[in-house]
Design goal:
Strand content of chain B: 5-15%
Oligomer: heterodimer
Largest sheet of chain B: 12 strands, mixed
Distance between the termini of chain B: 28 Å
Number of helices of chain B: 17
Largest sheet of chain A: 6 strands, mixed, barrel
Shape of chain B: elongated
Order of helices and strands of chain A: HHEHEEEHEEEHEEEEEHEEHHHH
Radius of gyration of chain B: 31 Å
Order of helices and strands of chain B: HHEHEEEEHEHEHEEHEHHEHEHHHHHHH
Structural class of chain A: alpha+beta
Number of strands of chain A: 14
Number of domains of chain B: 2
Strand order of the largest sheet of chain A: 3-4-10-7-9-8
Chain lengths: 418, 438
């Protein structure tokens, strides 16, 4: 079969051809970018935090009428109160281990700073940024961190300080990503770094495989894996405790926490919603916007693909009806059913072909526009190529029903006058 | 004549129910997707205080110099304690207030109840008249209360309900962070979105309510720490909350009311003069680099509208466009198929204008039907954003009369536009040729 008759026929209804290719182009452009957005969000939501998230929950409480923590006596008092809480929680039957911590991955509340190889270095001068986790020797068991080099904290490493104070940090543990950034040659353990422009050295005693920083926003995205663990309890009028329940006992342990803490000291705020929160809930809240965006884009894609497929069916059906008689003539002149079927399939392929070429340009254009105005990255070629193939396949699927109806037009139609 | 076209259109639409349904569905879904995303966009990009936003200004002072600026040369988006206090003392705007976010505990009078945590702001007395904050009972505190660090508090109607059962509590006592405060005012439901007076800490939108407002100097005096962000370009030399007040760390929001252009110019000169004085005295090693944006510009600068919302709206508009192209293609095929009918009408003396009227009526009816379907789907869409979007944003999206009217209008106008080219082609049909060929 030659293309010539198809092209000649298409020339007869240019406007329809232009409209349907334009629609295919728009669909391809939007679907490619929407699916790309979905892919990015799924990747983001699925990245592991580095924690063992099962059986993990967070206690967030505030004391009423506690010392401010601005003077040394107040700090000591607060530290006693915090250790009482820790002891009470560690005594609960369903609890495996507990560690104080100023934050957790995905919690979007962080103490950030920067690390340098030189003492008294200026902040924000090309030094890697980091988020600090102030915790104690039970952090590894509680968070489920994976130590890859050096040693974990022991009880002797642990200090305490007022939450707004700046204290020397003789030993720290960093993530593998941060260690690689600071010491590209490797062997970070035993090396000395300086935090937040301090002139007091900190020795790296261990490296953990992975630990995400608390911030999920764009602000923290360039140091998402640069966490530093400091063996220090922070003392303020509020505190956070990370609790690992015994396997499968998370809900029971969570349930037991309020009574246990009120028994230690009832002058405290333990919010009904925020006071005791499972890590699963923290994760859901942190990624709600991403999941929502992915669902929204998915719905848009679905509607768009249905509309386009239905549009192709509708328009082709019309053309088939319009050419009823010509089809009969062709059949009478010896064309087989399969020839008629192929005619409409090839016609669709041509129209869709023009559409996807235009669509690829539009898709890339839209992507570049989104890149300049919003936080988007370049769309990988794989997405566009898959989109092109999918679009062509949808076109063929949509054209099949009307094309088959066309192929069933009997040759006798040619002899009837309409 | 219109009734006749209406009848013709309905008859034509009935003749091919499948195609008609297809077009109505296309328009319905396209419009509903756009309107649902638009309802979210409208909710988050709205002006929280439209009658006054052009008179409210946020000053920024470049107290960190070149090293502390963002990549586009912007000074910090909050103030340190020293600058905020100086600006308050100089009092150059009509009304102004420094403010910081607090999260104190409230101890209920009933000893059997556990203490609760509330959020709010420490502000100056001018905060309330400046932002036209509505009161249910009482009012804000006085300038004297500011200077005397009076133990007074303004509470939300929600907290009033919780603590006093909703009765007039002015003059009663609330225990905030272990100390007694006298209630001077109860707010009438006031929950502006975005939380424009402190977008840096609220991130724009908030599901919570501002439950307490305390005098700024009182909160400082009792050491009520800030619960919002603290940004430092250097580690504070002293420790604790007092050390923070002596540092160049930024943690205070500031807003000023300037009623006319002259006042804005004067205030800008004042800010620059303040920075120049600091430069001359050697505190600043750089020329003044201040900003003074009005509220709409400030909200834009702080990217209060999430980029996801904008991208969603854009993608949905693209979907609507694709739906319209689709409808245009179907209408074109449909109209041209009726060439012989058009030929007869033209031959019998119908002018082109009549053909336009007839076919645009048909397109309009499809638009209207699509719009009605779109209304239902928009209702479903807005109801279901609550499941997928973050709560603080989803809670703001609402279906109201103007959204419904807009949905119908968009559907009808867009479909009529889509019908323009097919109608133009239909009106060009040569009567003689059509009559001959039959």
């Amino acid at each position: 079969m030659t293309l010539h008759p198809i092209l000649a026929a298409l020339r007869k209804h240019k406007a329809g051809v232009v409209l349907i290719s334009l629609q295919i182009a728009l669909t391809l452009a939007i679907v490619c970018n929407a699916v790309f957005i979905i892919g990015q969000r799924i990747e983001r939501v699925n990245r592991p935090t580095g924690l063992d998230e099962n059986d993990l929950f967070l206690v967030n409480q505030q004391w009423v009428g506690a010392p401010s923590g601005d003077d040394p006596a107040g700090v000591e008092k607060l530290d006693v109160m915090q250790r009482e809480d820790l002891a009470a929680l560690r005594n609960l039957p369903d609890v495996a281990s507990v560690a104080p911590s100023n934050s957790l991955p995905l919690l979007n509340s962080s103490w950030d700073g920067s690390l340098s190889l030189k003492p008294a270095d200026q902040l924000a001068k090309g030094n890697p940024r980091t988020a600090y986790y102030f915790t104690d020797e039970q952090a590894f068991a509680t968070l489920g961190l994976h130590l890859v080099a050096g040693r974990a904290f022991n009880a002797g490493d642990v200090q305490h300080q007022g939450a707004r104070d700046q204290r020397d940090r003789p030993v720290v543990i960093v993530t593998q990503a941060l260690a690689d950034k600071l010491f590209p040659q490797g062997n970070a353990v035993g090396k000395v770094i300086y935090s937040d422009g301090s002139s007091a050295p900190s020795t790296i005693i261990g490296v953990v495989a992975r630990l995400q920083t608390p911030s999920t926003g764009s602000f923290g995205s360039d140091f998402a894996w640069y966490s530093t663990l400091v063996p220090t309890r922070l003392d303020a009028n509020f505190s956070r405790y990370v609790v690992r329940a015994k396997p499968g006992r998370r809900d029971a342990a969570m349930h037991a926490v309020p009574a246990a803490l009120y028994a230690v000291n009832s002058m405290r705020v333990l919010d009904e919603d925020e006071g005791v929160k499972s890590f699963a809930v923290i994760r859901t809240m942190a990624y709600r916007a991403d999941v929502g965006m992915a669902i929204l884009m998915g719905v848009v894609c679905l509607i768009l693909l249905c509309v386009t497929a239905a549009g192709i069916v509708g328009l082709t059906s019309f053309w088939v009806g319009q050419r009823h008689r010509q089809i009969g003539v062709r059949r009478a002149l010896g064309a087989r059913k399969i020839d008629i079927l192929h005619y409409f399939q090839i016609e669709n392929l041509l129209i869709a072909g023009v559409g996807v070429v235009l669509g690829v340009l539009l898709a890339v254009g839209l992507n570049i526009w989104l890149m300049t105005h919003y936080e988007m990255t370049r769309i990988p070629l794989l997405y566009v190529a898959t989109g092109v193939l999918a679009m062509l396949a949808i076109g063929q699927a949509a054209v099949f029903v009307p094309a088959r109806r066309a192929s069933n037009v009997p040759p006798v139609v040619a002899t009837r006058s309409v | 004549m219109f009734a006749y076209y209406l009848e013709l259109a309905l008859r034509s639409l009935r003749r091919s129910p499948g195609l008609t349904a297809l077009m109505v569905l296309t328009i319905g879904f396209g419009v509903a997707a756009s309107m649902t995303t638009y309802s979210v966009f409208r909710a988050v990009s709205g002006d929280p205080i439209p009658w006054k936003s052009s008179q409210l200004f946020v000053p920024q002072i470049d107290m960190w110099g070149p090293n502390g600026r963002s990549s586009d040369g912007e000074p910090p988006n909050a103030m340190d304690y020293n600058d905020a206090i100086t600006l308050m003392r100089d009092h150059r705007a009509k009304l102004q207030s420094a403010m910081y976010q607090i999260s104190p505990s409230i101890v209920p009078a009933d000893a059997s109840k556990h203490p609760i945590n509330v959020s709010g702001h420490a502000v100056y007395s001018e905060f309330f008249p400046m932002l036209d904050v509505p009161f249910l009972y009482g009012s804000g505190w006085s300038a004297d209360d500011d200077t005397q660090r009076a133990a007074v508090v303004v509470i939300s109607s929600k907290l009033n309900q919780k603590l006093f059962g909703g009765s007039n509590s002015v003059g009663k006592t609330v225990n905030v962070e272990g100390k007694d405060y006298r209630v001077v005012g109860v707010l009438n439901d006031w929950n502006p979105q975005p939380r424009f007076f402190d977008v840096v800490n609220s991130g724009g939108f908030s599901t919570g309510v501002e439950d307490v407002f305390l005098p700024f100097q009182r909160a400082i005096a009792v050491g009520l720490p800030n619960d919002g962000n603290t940004n430092c370009n250097a580690v504070p030399a002293e420790s604790g909350f007092v050390g923070l007040q002596h540092s160049a760390c930024v943690w205070i929001a500031y807003m000023a009311e300037l009623d006319d252009a002259a006042a804005v110019t004067a205030y800008k000169q004042y800010l620059d003069g303040y920075a120049r004085d600091l430069q001359q005295s050697g505190h600043f090693g750089w020329a003044p680099n201040n900003r003074l944006r009005d509220l709409p510009a400030w909200l834009d600068n702080q990217h209060v509208v999430p980029s996801d919302t904008k991208v969603s709206l854009l993608v949905a508009l693209g979907l609507l466009l694709a739906c319209l192209v689709n409808t245009a293609g179907l209408l074109l095929a449909k109209f041209l198929r009726r060439s012989s009918e058009i030929g007869v009408r033209r031959a019998l003396g119908a002018p082109r204008l009549a053909i336009y009227a007839q076919f645009l009526t048909e397109a309009g009816i499809i638009g209207l039907a699509g719009g009605v379907l779109g209304l239902l789907l928009t209702g479903v869409g807005v109801a279901s954003v609550g499941w997928v979007l973050p709560k603080d944003i989803a809670a703001l999206a609402r279906v109201n009369f103007s959204l419904l009217m807009l949905t119908l209008l968009v559907a009808v106008i867009a479909t009529t536009l889509a019908g323009l080219y097919p109608t133009f082609r239909a009106s060009r049909v040569q009567p003689a040729w059509q009559l001959k060929s039959n």
